[in-house]
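Sorry, any thoughts here?
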Amino acid sequence: MIYRVVLAVVLATALVAATLGPIDDARRQRASATVSDQASDLERAADTLLETDDPIGGPGARRVVTVRVPTRTWTSGGVERVSLRPSTDQTPARLSWLLTGGQPRTRQLPGVPLRTADGSPVVLRRSGPHRLVISLDGQPGVPVLTVRRLK
């Protein structure tokens, strides 16, 4: 009788161990998809701002976008940080994120002339919602979108 119990425990442990890897992969994929979807929301807000408003040479129109940094749960992997890097002459703006226990991921935002006030990336380290403001600056005919945290 004791042999059956020991055998059942050993088999159950082996089955759980065999499924943990794929479960962690699925969690990381879900967290990555969540951040990628939010990059699409950010890109859409920036595109809408460029299409519907014109720069006036001073403070212009703005949009507020909420970016949620996923927390590790039973169904989703965690993200250690999300950073929004401004565009340069050579590279488009890009959203990068580092999955907990995973590889860094990057999504480029081509055609969106994003910048920050000081040229450094906006880094979101704490899990949960973060509100970003995209404001339309620049001169007529030369739009520039500035991103900053909403305080």
In short: The helical segments are 2-52. The chain has a mean pLDDT of 84. The CA atoms of residues 84 and 122 lie 5 Å apart.
